[in-house]
Please model this.
Amino acid sequence: MSKSLEKFNYSIKDAENLLIFFNDNSKKKDAEVLKRAGFVMAFTAWETYVEDRLVEELDVRSSMIKDSFIGKFFQKKLSEELKRFNTPNVEKTRKLYRDFLGIDDVTKDWNIQGYSQEQTKKQLDEFVEKRGQIVHQSKENVSETSPDIVKKDELKKLITFLKNLVNAFDKRLEE
Model:
């Protein structure tokens, strides 16, 4: 198990705890914010994993050139790229790992429980799109009668999905 996977397993607990807090407070007027926050925290754990796992793998692969001019240049470019990198969808993740690790398609083994590779990629991109809706839509844009943007079951599904995806991803990189 990579250090990045260990960190993800710890980080995803924030989203799980927000779901528990929602369950405990679901009758309260503003409890819906806990589901939105849980969705965002789950994606924060995912994004951190994707970035950390890349850096972790690069450290192993580039240890011999780390202190050389080329190694420092490479690290600078990686740092610049990661500053611009956000909300890793399928294509962004694929490109990042292709550009920096030479892995043609890091998504090729993303067969997770209940999903084919294509379904996994489609589901991730749908969740990424939903995350964008959540962070770019203020509560003021939603009326009292609007349905919740995040359903409780959807947050549970996202957490489980990301945990399974990260495990498959980590396994792929360990090979």
Residues 3-174 form one domain. DSSP finds six helices and no strands in the chain. The mean pLDDT is 89.
